[in-house]
Design brief:
The complex is a heterodimer of chains A (335) and B (326). With 335 residues, chain A is α/β, with parallel strands linked by helices. Chain A has helices at residues 13-38, 53-61, 76-81, 86-93, 127-141, 159-170, 201-204, 219-234, 263-270, 274-284, 289-312; strands at 2-4, 10-12, 68-72, 117-121, 147-152, 175-181, 211-215, 240-245. Chain B is an alpha/beta fold. Chain B folds into two domains: 5-182, Thiamin diphosphate (ThDP)-binding fold, Pyr/PP domains (Rossmann fold); 197-324, Rossmann fold. Classes of the chains: A alpha/beta (335), B alpha/beta (326).
């Protein structure tokens, strides 16, 4: 039971079901984060990625263990897609000692280095050169690892984006630049502040890089596109720019109700919810809707347990604020 | 006695020694390869190590330090060059927000063995955008080590420590010192970061200097010796880790402290050293702590104007005289 998704790539129901489950884990984690934020248990800010799941899961599925991923402050989905557990993400957001970054990072800096998830960056565009550097490192060390930088449409107007694309192109680095174009830089439509129609893909041309504009809500399409780009990168053929069209289900951050988005636009995109798209594909492949519902219920139980685990976890010892600055573990700046 | 070498030669010597001992050390920067650097501080490296270890970059400071950071996080020990330290402003995000915070905000998951070398300071008449001493820009950011050697041997020894460090180090090479000569570094020379050096012993006034102000302070001390004022000169060598103990111990003997900085008085490193001495060495002091720092103006072009702004031997002599007469 397979469906062709490209010249040589196919996906079967069990594979798609696995991706659906990962997307459901992200979706329900984000819903839990929203509720925890509204109830005051998550402080500071959050930038939820509900709606963007297919970009994370599809790309991640095209990667190997040992590859590198760099994400933005809207990065919960990438941390989870690379193997961070909802419990350790939620604990981080809830300022708990068991959090991914020992509660020193927070929502905008989820990192799981031992899985190659080398950080979520909150200065727009800053991580594109860093990802290029990780790809350069792979080339220097003679491995076939690749690096992926995920970024928003807003990042395409900052200098670091352009410096990174040029350097990666000139040095032919094994890196994917994956733009999650959700149509809004924050509150402003990206089209209102960008000189070209396709903020990432149209710029790729200027750097001599191949670019693909794809439906970022179709996990199979994302996977297949990423797979081709990853193969190119591993083969030494250099970077690819992928512009994945997608949409936020929540506002930009915190409790933003996103009133600046027209209702009909929201409605249109909600009908293209990546989980709905995957569900339809699954049923067309013969998977019973009841089985998908059961999967959703299993994920709901898992997230409920993760929330409880994070709630029960201890807060950090305040003394740990003065650790982890230097490689010796400490923070002494005087000798 | 071995033949003297220049500070400029010491830079490439220091890098070459580390590249020979550790294949993970890789350099990147503008014009550092076949061109051997705009200041010729990478002379010979491209010839010896080739394009796989000496990488010419575009004029893209963010890409240079960003890529260096990504490489440092993944098993390389990059040495990135920012041609003029003024250009740190072009990639300050990486020095202020990325590199120093990487270990901390990931809860210790990531190690950043990275060196950023840069030509710092005035004295060559390059004008306001190529002459600043900007060590204080970096000194405001917790999480970066700061080396600023004053002699060829220290360049080599501190370069070894910087490149071997598992922490990020900003390595200031002073433009005004590049042509200066000194003893060559012995084989395997390593100067630990965070150890100040007492470069002249004295009893009356402690003068703390860094990089270009070390020879300035030494010249002043020599002149003052003729007036029976005995000056102790400390070369701080690093700002982070800061060897305040050597300063405090010296002040405990001399009871007088002068700080000589090329960065502006406004926000200069001497203010931090002064505050430490005021806090921890107050009872040693017989006079106020004084600072000779750059005037709080952009660096002017003409020599006569530049001398008016940055520390000079005359200014140091005058300040020490007033301190010892206090």
């Amino acid at each position: 039971m397979t469906v062709s998704a490209g010249e040589s790539l196919t996906v079967d129901a069990s594979q798609l079901l696995e991706w659906y489950e990962q997307m459901a884990v992200i979706r329900q984690t984000e819903k839990a984060v929203y509720d925890l934020f509204m109830s005051g248990l998550v402080k500071g800010t959050t930038h939820l990625a509900a709606g963007h799941e297919a970009v994370a899961v599809g790309t991640s599925a095209a990667l190997r263990e040992g590859d590198y991923v760099f994400a933005t402050y809207r990065g919960h989905h990438h941390a989870i897609a690379r193997g961070a557990t909802p419990a350790e993400c939620l604990a981080e957001l809830m300022s708990k000692a068991t959090g991914l970054c020992k509660a020193k990072g927070g929502s905008m800096h989820l990192t799981k280095a031992d899985r190659g998830m080398l950080g979520s960056y909150a200065i727009v565009g800053s991580h594109l050169p860093i990802a290029a550097g990780a790809a350069w490192s792979a080339k220097l060390r003679g491995t076939d690892q690749v690096a992926v930088a995920f970024f928003g449409d807003g990042a395409t107007n900052i200098g670091a984006f352009h410096e990174a694309l040029n350097l990666a192109a000139v040095w032919k680095l094994p890196v994917l630049f994956v733009c999650e174009n959700n149509l809004y830089m924050e509150y402003t439509p990206i089209s209102a502040v960008t000189s070209v129609a396709n903020p990432a893909a149209d710029r790729a041309v200027a750097y001599g890089l191949p670019a693909e504009i794809i439906d970022g809500n179709d996990v199979i399409k994302v996977h297949d596109t990423a797979r081709v780009a990853v193969d190119r990168a591993r083969a030494g053929d250099g970077p690819t720019v992928i512009e994945a069209l997608t949409y936020r289900h929540y506002g930009h951050s915190r409790a933003d109700p996103a009133k600046y988005r027209p209702a009909d636009e929201v409605e249109r995109w909600m009908q293209r919810d990546p989980l709905l798209v995957a569900r339809e594909r699954l049923t067309s492949l013969g998977v019973d809707a009841a089985d998908i519902d059961a999967l959703d219920a299993k994920v709901a139980d898992m997230i409920k347990a993760a929330v409880q685990e994070a709630k029960d976890a201890p807060y950090p010892d305040p003394a740990t604020a003065l650790t982890d600055v230097w490689a010796d573990g400490g923070a002494r700046w005087r000798s | 006695m071995a033949e003297l070498i220049t500070y400029r030669e010491a830079v490439s010597e220091g890098i070459a020694r580390e590249m020979r001992r550790d294949p993970r050390v890789v350099c990147l920067g503008e014009d550092i390869g076949a061109a051997e650097g705009v200041f010729k501080t990478t002379a010979g490296l491209f010839a010896e190590f080739g394009p796989q270890r000496i990488w010419d970059t575009p004029i893209s400071e963010q890409a240079i330090v960003g890529a260096a950071l990504g490489a440092a996080m993944t098993g390389i020990r990059p040495v990135a060059e920012i041609m003029f330290s003024d250009f740190i402003a072009c990639c300050y995000d990486y020095l202020a927000n990325e590199i120093p915070k990487m270990r901390y905000m990931t809860g210790g998951q990531v190690t950043v063995p990275l060196v950023i070398r840069t030509a710092n300071g005035g004295g060559l008449g390059f004008g306001a955008q190529h002459s600043q001493a900007v060590e204080n820009w970096v000194f405001t950011v917790p999480g970066l080590k700061i080396a600023a050697p004053s002699t060829p041997a220290d360049v080599v020894g501190m370069m070894a420590s910087a490149i071997r460090s598992d922490d990020p180090v900003v390595f200031f090479e002073h433009k005004g010192l590049l042509a200066s000569k000194g003893e060559p570094a012995p084989p395997e020379h390593v100067v630990p970061l965070g150890e100040a050096s007492i470069v002249r012993r004295g009893d009356d006034v402690t003068v703390v200097a860094l990089a270009s102000t070390v020879p300035t302070a030494l010249s002043a001390a020599e002149l003052l010796a003729g007036e029976d004022i005995s000056v102790e000169v400390i070369d701080l060598r690093c700002l982070v880790p800061l060897d305040a103990q050597t300063v405090l111990s010296s002040v405990a003997r001399t009871s007088h402290l002068l700080l000589v900085e090329e960065n502006p008085y406004q926000g200069g490193w001497g203010a931090t050293v002064a505050s430490i001495v005021a806090d921890e060495g107050f009872t040693s002091l017989d006079a106020p702590v004084r600072r000779v720092a750059a005037e709080c103006v952009p660096l002017p072009f003409a020599d006569a104007l530049e001398d008016e702004v940055i520390p000079t031997v005359d200014k140091v002599v005058d300040a020490v005289r007033r301190l010892s007469a206090f």
